[in-house]
Amino acid sequence: MGLAITYIIIAIYSTALLLIFFYSLAQLNLLINYLGYKKRNEEAPKFNLLDPKEIPFVTIQLPIYNEEYVMERLLDNIAKIEYPKSKLEIQVLDDSTDDSVAETARRVQELQETGLDIQHIRRENRKGFKAGALKEGLEIAKGDFIAIFDADFLPEADWLKKTVPYFKDEEIGVVQTRWGHINRDYSTLTRIQAFALDAHFTLEQVGRNSKGHFINFNGTAGIWRKQCILDAGNWEGDTLTEDLDLSYRAQLKNWKFKYLEDVETPAELPVVISAARSQQFRWNKGGAENFRKTVLSVITAKNIPFKTKFHGVMHLLNSSMFLCVFTVALLSIPMLYIKNTYGHLGWVFEVTSFFILSTIILFVCYWFTYKSIQGSSFDNFVDYIKLFFTFFSVALGFSLHNSVAVLEGHLGKRSEFVRTPKFNINNLTDTWKGNKYLTNKLSPNMILEFALMIYFLFGMYSAIPLNDYGLFPFHLMLFLGFGFVFFKSLTSKA
Fold first, then answer.
1. Same domain, 141 and 59
2. pLDDT: is 181 or 418 the higher one?
3. Both 28 and 75 in a single domain?
4. Same domain, 248 and 338
5. Active-site option among 152, 198, 243, 245
6. Which of 95, 150, 152, 198 is catalytic?
7. Which terminus of the chain has a smaller tally of CB atoms within 10 A, N or C?
8. pLDDT digits (tens, 9 = 90+) for 210-233
9. 356 and 439 fall within a common domain
């Protein structure tokens, strides 16, 4: 290996490690914000929903597309929402192209006969996908406030009573609630998804919101002020994460967002890795698309302080961390050989300590989010250690797949909005077998994921002749992570 190539590898590797370190420092700052936050929800001005004059009109939007397995559960649950019927309408925004349309229409009609103001709204095409459906529904919505639930969400009956009152403050444009997970313990895959989402919905959302930094409406389980949507420019379908896009446009126009950690909205996690893949791809590509679309507006905004800009940029770069992690992983084996070939470059490997430090910071941050939901007993801490390293390994295993998504987003490559199949999985006895929305096609990335599994097996082997075991744990986690993603993808087909 030539010296020039050696220096290029070192430069790329070190840059990626430093970016990961900056990300972990941003997470640490959010943890400090989170721990220092004192609940101020009680002090906020609120509508008195016992006074009929103060009860605002609310529209619930249910954007759906081919949701046969969960439609009945969704509609039955929404029908239980406690709110004056004269001040509530429900829009079933149905873009479905399968047999579920007739069944949905039948159930909507039954609910209409109970006196519920519920409409089954169909479009001629899926222009703009979910964003297009929400925008079209908004044009005829009667409500001043728009609650949105995806098909797999099951809000409690008193959900509106817990969220609507905060709009008494006329500067608030969005109230977002925390996602819960009805099938958290179904499998290793659901446990690690819940683990990652819990970190976002505690550490990140509270950490940002408590200091007035930008947060995002999470696409569901939240409620918008209609005026805020229109003032921010309405829904746009030019990114795969229309929720993040509109959130930033609204906050750049000085609208405030309210995050309610103590209001949990249960939902179902994807139980098959192909479904998790499509969801991860959409979220990560959408994040990169929004970075491309919005970052200059955030940096040049005159109305927000520097710290909010910093956290905004790091938030928009969240998904790009997968690209940094994948780069570090890929170059770690050449770096192992460089270290043992060029003794005078030994100082460079002090940079590796940044990765260890970043891991320790994330370990501490995620522990606080884990214990806030699961508890802080010794047994819980032991479970946490196992879960953290399982999560870390599988996140590494997803790094190729998610890096492709991030690159496509940054390069502006357009792609269709691919929905995440729903399963109606509530407990361990339920099965996803036979779900007609699952694809039988294998991901083309699988061949590369298998190759990477072998590559990191070689990385572990390399430690023996070089007598250098510093990167062995990292390569072991990479081997296990890519192995998990590859074999799950191979076996978890419909």
1. yes
2. 181
3. no
4. no
5. 243
6. 95
7. N
8. 999 999 999 999 999 999 999 999
9. yes
Q: HEC states along the chain?
A: CCHHHHHHHHHHHHHHHHHHHHHHHHHHHHHHHHHHCCCCHHHCCCCCCCCHHHCCCEEEEEEECCCCCCHHHHHHHHCCCCCCHHHEEEEEEECCCCCHHHHHHHHHHHHHCCCCCEEEEECCCCCCHHHHHHHHHHHHCCCCEEEECCCCECCCCCHHHHHHHHHHCCCEEEEEEEEEECCCCCCHHHHHHHHHHHHHHHHHHHHHHCCCCCCCCCCCCEEEEHHHHHHCCCCCCCCCCHHHHHHHHHHHCCCEEEEEEEEEEEECCCCCHHHHHHHHHHHHHHHHHHHHHHHHHHHHCCCCCHHHHHHHHHHHCHHHHHHHHHHHHHHHHHHHHHHHHCHHHHHHHHHHHHHHHHHHHHHHHHHHHHHHHHCCCHHHHHHHHHHHHHHHHHHHHCHHHHHHHHHHHHHCCCCCCCCCCCCCCCCCCCCCCCCCCCCCCCCCHHHHHHHHHHHHHHHHHHHHHHCCCCCHHHHHHHHHHHHHHHHHHHHCCC
Confidence of residue 444 (pLDDT cuts 50, 70, 90): confident
375 & 435 share domain? yes
Establish whether 243 is a catalytic residue: yes
Instruction: Looking at the structure, tell me whether residues 17 and 49 fall in a common domain.
Output: no
Is there a single domain that holds both residue 337 and residue 467? yes
Kindly state whether residues 323 and 410 are assigned to the same domain: yes
**Would 407 be classed as within a structural domain?**
yes
Residue 420 confidence (pLDDT):
65
Asked about 95 being catalytic, the answer comes back as yes
